[in-house]
TrEMBL record, chain B:
This is Sporulation protein YqfC. InterPro entries: Spore_YabP/YqfC, Spore_YqfC. The gene is yqfC.
């Protein structure tokens, strides 16, 4: 069987033969070894057939031998196509240029991903990579292999334990494992721990330093609790005293809570009105009835109409109406006190540190005066009272 | 002698299960409906028009008639004919 693909690459032609019968032509073709196909009878002594471009010379010889006329009707295949394309050099140049650009761009480095580090280390890795020539827009032809990149970075950077380099097409991916450096605690300057307020010592946890106090001792503000001075007199060394001193102290808080209160709430019934505003006049468009209650809250949103940035005198007004309900809340005195306590605790906790514990609370006094409950409360609190105070050395 | 050869070939086809077209130089026809006919072992085209194809055989002629005939492929001993095939018959010389 014939091979279409092969014919197209070598080129073939449709010929019309006159003054010869197909039988004699076919016979002669086989004698000369000319491949022919799709022989179609048109009329007596006229037919068409396909022949290969490579048999052109033999065909001419045959035409002489059979004294027939051969007319070429169609020319097909790659050689003819190339000839046609040579007339369209711009198109060919465009296609070739596109392929060239595609190859060029696909061989560039487009992204560099660095994973597993903090920004500082990432910056350093990036810097080293840039020195090696690995940056956005670099050509991959001139870049070393990933293994070499890996070796180089690991040699250059001290803070890196291991770095994994992988290349996915046009992107490089770096997986960095940093050396974990055990950070030493910043050495604070030498100093004592002093009391931040007047309190009774409840407990103390001294990490460093010389405690000068005992539990249940009363301290004033500024008293040294834990000294940073160690050793005997004359041979003293100074350190930074560290620790926690839990002191107990008291607070008096006064709170006023109103006994009755009027609250307005929204019931949930709403209505929506649409209107068209022309100048100062509003013409209702949709939603005429509205709410039929006395107490309501209105909300108006108006939107100016604009055409190409120019204001028109028209605007669209949407009015939302919400039904309101007012509730008088009479509070029992007991409840009021409870609320007062709550408020006082809240107020207190804002003033103290997070670790503070309220160990006791007591209502000292409560009076009702002018629709308000006045409550004074007494709180017992435990909190850290130690504050660092640097030692000023030298005389 | 020729008669003996002919007899031997026929005997081989009948008793040795060998294909007749190979041994006896007969044409082998493969038809696909009315559309195609594929002929092997022919001895050349005697006549070709769009309604008739005559092929020379070792003995006699093979005539294929129909309409809209096109010789799709032609090789020294093979031919593929396309068209609407109506009759296939043999003519003795």
């Amino acid at each position: 069987m014939r091979n279409d693909w092969l014919h197209k690459s070598t080129g073939y032609m449709k010929i019309q033969v006159t003054h010869a019968s197909p039988e004699t032509f076919i016979k002669e073709c086989q004698r000369q070894g000319v491949l022919t196909w799709e022989v179609t009878f048109q009329e007596e002594e006229r037919f068409t057939a396909y022949v290969l471009l490579t048999d052109l010379y033999k065909l001419k010889k045959m035409a002489k031998l059979l004294s027939c006329k051969i007319k070429f009707e169609e020319k097909k295949g790659l050689p003819f196509l190339l000839k046609k394309l040579s007339n369209r050099k711009g198109l060919v140049a465009g296609i070739l240029g596109f392929i060239a650009v595609l190859i060029l761009l696909s061989n560039m480095v487009w992204t560099i991903e660095i994973e597993g580090t903090d920004p500082a280390m990432e910056h350093e890795v990036r810097h080293v990579l840039e020195q090696m020539g690995i940056k956005k827009g670099a050509f991959q032809y001139f870049l070393p292999a990933p293994e070499i990149i890996q070796d180089n970075i690991m040699n250059e950077l001290d803070g890196v334990t291991w770095i994994g380099v992988t290349k996915h097409g046009s992107s490089y991916h770096f997986q960095v494992v940093e050396k974990e450096i055990v950070e030493e605690r910043p050495t604070t300057g030498t100093g004592h721990l002093v009391a931040s307020r007047k309190a009774v010592i409840h407990d103390l946890f001294v990490e460093k330093g010389n405690p000068l106090i005992k539990p249940n001792q009363v301290v004033k503000k500024g008293d040294i609790l834990v000294s940073g001075e160690l050793g005997k007199e004359g041979k003293t060394t100074f350190i930074a005293a560290e620790g926690e001193v839990i002191g107990e102290f008291w607070y008096k808080v006064r709170v006023k809570v109103p006994l009755s209160q009027t609250i307005e709430t929204v019931t949930g019934r709403t209505a929506k009105k649409h209107g068209l505003k022309i100048g100062n006049m509003t013409v209702p468009v949709w939603g005429f009835s509205g709410l039929n209650t006395d107490e309501k809250y209105k909300e108006q949103i108006s939107k100016d109409w604009e055409i190409f940035g120019y204001k028109t005198p028209f605007s669209h007004v949407v009015t939302h109406e919400y039904e309101l309900q007012s509730i008088d809340r009479e509070r029992a005195q007991k409840k009021a006190v409870a609320i007062a306590k709550e408020e006082a605790t809240k107020k207190l906790m804002q003033m103290l540190s997070e670790d503070a514990i309220i160990t006791g609370e007591k209502v000292l006094h409560e009076t009702v005066d002018g629709g308000k409950v006045k409550v004074s409360l007494h709180y017992k609190i435990q909190d850290n009272i130690a504050v660092k105070q640097p030692i000023i050395q030298g005389d | 002698m020729k008669r003996f050869q002919h007899w031997l070939k026929k005997w081989m086809v009948n008793y040795m299960d060998l294909p007749a077209d190979v041994i006896m130089d007969l044409p082998r026809l493969t038809m696909i409906g009315q559309l195609h006919v594929y002929i092997e072992n022919h001895r050349g085209v005697v006549r070709f028009t769009n309604t008739e194809l005559r092929l020379a055989l070792k003995e006699g002629e093979l005539v294929i008639s129909g309409n809209q005939f096109i010789i799709k492929t032609i090789l020294p001993e093979e031919i593929l004919l396309e068209g609407i095939i109506e009759h296939v018959y043999y003519e003795k010389p």
